[in-house]
Amino acid sequence: MGYLQGEKPITISKLHAMHAEGEKITMLTAYDSTMSALLNRSGVETILIGDSLGNVIQGHSSTTPVTVKQVAYHTECVARANTHAFIIADLPFASYGNPVQALDSAAELMRAGADMVKLEGGDWQIDIIQYLVERSVPVCAHLGLLPQSVHILGGYKVQGKSKDAASLMLEQAIACEQAGAQMIVLEAIPSSLGKLITESLSIPTIGIGAGVNCSGQVLVLQDMLGISPGKPPKFVKNFMDGHASIEAAIKAYVREVKSGKFPGPEHGFAG
Ligand SMILES: Nc1nc(=O)c2c([nH]1)NC[C@@H]1CN(c3ccc(C(=O)N[C@@H](CCC(=O)O)C(=O)O)cc3)CN21
Ligand SMILES: CC(C)C(=O)C(=O)O
Ligand SMILES: [Mg+2]
């Protein structure tokens, strides 16, 4: 199907214009073509093939076992049904340890149909971000809670809570933008810090547990459909509550992100 029919494809310029005009950007994860088609029909602008597929598809307890080949496979599945959404694929754990490896990994994801790749980390990834962007790979950075570092951090914990940690994260976000990152995901940080970083950058920020003042929002699809096992993180809202179909739930998510109803204060973290 590709771009042969349907709505005009969402581009990075369109996403930047939305950020500049204050129109909220919607993002959800997807890993297969059925859900890709559904997200396209529901008005979701950006689809993330997250390495969260390690959890929700493969049943692992972390994202670290996920490989580039696996993300590429799911990106192909999503891209086949994509009509116009902007596709971002996660560079998985240990697939961007040096610039050459990062370009190799990113190329595999771009060939699979990604429009942009996402990597975890801040100023310590500057060389990687620069190397990719100079070679025409669009990059989304990811700051705050970094799931690929779970075995270093000793668990999934809110980040940027102290004054020092917050100002360090702001510096890292600015460094990522200066290195050429065109978007940034902010995960599990105080809402006030999400707002500060968003106001300090000219590229869009996409929040997950980062407050309502980011340029857009993302959730893992299975989480917002209420079908992930276990107790969901605080930033998750079950959009199946009060909706009779998956399509209605996804459309409600789009409406609530656009209007600023989601996330509410109860889905965020205090400083
Ligand atoms: N299904 C799924 N959803 C996700 O959001 C997700 C994944 N998988 N896999 C990769 C990472 C892991 N993520 C997580 C996992 C747990 C928490 C969590 O338990 N957070 C606590 C905060 C703990 C604290 O207060 O420091 C919470 O209550 O939200 C957060 C993000 C986000 N990502
Ligand atoms: C939770 C989002 C931001 C992600 O990185 C993923 O799904 O892997
Ligand atoms: Mg991820």
From TrEMBL:
Q: Gene3D superfamilies given for it?
A: Phosphoenolpyruvate-binding domains
Which residues participate directly in catalysis?
E187
Q: What does this protein do?
A: Catalyzes the reversible reaction in which hydroxymethyl group from 5,10-methylenetetrahydrofolate is transferred onto alpha-ketoisovalerate to form ketopantoate.
One biological-process term from Gene Ontology? pantothenate biosynthetic process
What SUPFAM superfamilies does this protein map onto?
Phosphoenolpyruvate/pyruvate domain
Say if the entry is tagged with keyword Magnesium. yes
Q: Which gene encodes it?
A: panB
For this UniProt record, the keywords arranged alphabetically read as follows: Cytoplasm, Magnesium, Metal-binding, Pantothenate biosynthesis, Transferase
Q: Which GO terms describe its cellular component?
A: cytoplasm
Q: Report the sequence similarity comment from the record.
A: Belongs to the PanB family.
| Pfam name, any one | Pantoate_transf
| Principal cellular location given in the protein's record | cytoplasm
Signal sequence range: none
* Enzyme class, UniProt record, top EC level: transferase
Which EC number(s) does the record attach to this protein? 2.1.2.11
| Protein name per UniProt | 3-methyl-2-oxobutanoate hydroxymethyltransferase
* Gene Ontology molecular-function annotations: 3-methyl-2-oxobutanoate hydroxymethyltransferase activity; magnesium ion binding
Binding of Mg(2+), residues: D51, D90, E120
What reactions does this protein catalyze? Answer: (6R)-5,10-methylene-5,6,7,8-tetrahydrofolate + 3-methyl-2-oxobutanoate + H2O = 2-dehydropantoate + (6S)-5,6,7,8-tetrahydrofolate
